[in-house]
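Dear support,

I submitted the protein below through the web form. The confirmation email said the job was done, but the results page showed an empty box. After a refresh the structure appeared. I'm attaching both so you can tell me whether what I see now is the final result or a partial one.
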Amino acid sequence: MGKEFNVTGDCKPKLHYMVDISGRLEEIAHLVERGEYFTINRARQYGKTTTLRALKLVLDQRYLVVSLDFQKIGDTKFRNENVFSIAFARLFLRAIRGDEHESVQMAEAVEALSNALNSHSDSLELLELFEYLSDICLVSARPVVLMIDEVDSAANNQVFLDFLAQLRAYYIDRDVTPTFQSVILAGVYDVKNLKRRLRADGDHKMNSPWNIAADFHVEMSFSARDISSMVRQYDEDYHTGMDVEKISEYLYEYTSGYPFLVSRLCWIIDERVVGSKGFPDKRAAWTRKGVLEAVKILLSEKNTLFETLINKLTEYPDLREMLHAILFSGDRISFSYDNYTIDLAAMLGFVRNEQGTMVVANRLFETRLYNYFLSEEEVGSRIFTAGAMGKNQFIQNGILNMDLILRKFMVCWEELYCSADEKFIEDNGRKFFLLFLKPIINGAGNYYIESRTRDNRRTDIIVDYHGMQYVVEIKIWRGNEYNRRGEKQLMEYMDAYHVQKGYLLSFNFNNRKVTGANEIRLGDSRTILEVVV
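What the results page shows now:
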């Protein structure tokens, strides 16, 4: 059986196509060599477990690596120090099974911990546990490295804080007391900020004992070059004739290198696009058009990552309000980890810092959020109903008639919202166009917002439909000079997306405005359809 793209669990080199992560493993190994204690906190399905398992293989020759998973310790094991210490000791002993025979001293130290479990486990608490662990570290022929995955599954518990406090105490005294060479904790939540999750009643722990941890700045998202290392493995097996570099760039454009999303798109191309209508074989599927088809499928499916994204909006109303303001009002919010909601959104992987401004992490998240927020307003929305009722007229021989969409939107707008005030239109103009567009392209196309131009005055929307792309600029009218700059920007995007026609939708509040549609012919073969409402 050949390799496949993995979208469940950790990646295994013999079974799965994988990005080459050797460079980042070297960076992490350097932290271990320096004796650092640190946390790898990244969003769900970001490759943490894969990284830890690959790291263990790198470190095994030089260190005794004890790899644990706190998912194996249920909540009941954190009810007190004794119960936790017993559970931890058993996991630890199981993890080093076989290594206890490296020396007589090591065998004796391991046997002492084992005997403590068997003969007087009722008295085994964190103090005694760490004394036994220290003895093992003292006699081990190799420095001991402790790695704990899914560590934030324990973060609600005071016993876990006490466990971190013991790690901290031994770290501080490491010059006189034997202890771990390095400790690596991996999870979604940064355990340096356990005040988020410890208590639900407002009595939060303000300081985590994990303040001894070194900063972890190793990049774990994939670059286009990283993605190409995985896609090339596939192409070497199947000889699709794809342009590996171009395909990798397309995958990066939609995912911004989020590991699960990259793998999911590749899996969809290989498992669902190949053999579907219009894509008879792998050669046809591994193209730009095939990537767009995979994007359409991914955005319409139900998966655990998207479920987490939407569920957090309900759990954290401030997060919901902030993301809505960015998407629909064009709010530019300065990125600051001191802001609880921004820090939470970044930790969950929903947003990123782009030159000091907070933006949604990737196009797929952004489009999914747009679809979610718009779906809440579809029922009872007259502009959505107008788009849905006229859907068939906008598709001609499988091609989207964007000219007609803009012209019909103009008519519907005049009928429904011509008397709306300026503030209402500024807040809702782009939302109403997307509500009009959504039922027309639903099931056959997608859209995304060009984040580099989104603000409270203008937005560029890229519409993908059956492999063709359309660039639509939506803006608030601010005078002729501003309008000319908008036309110039639109032409630049037309060049970037290799299209001959662009679309400009202007919301004009001037009392003497002239509404209507006007086709602007440029000096070359390109044209812009400008619609003013």
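Response: this is the final, complete result; the empty box was a page-load delay. Residues 422-441 form the longest helix (20 residues).
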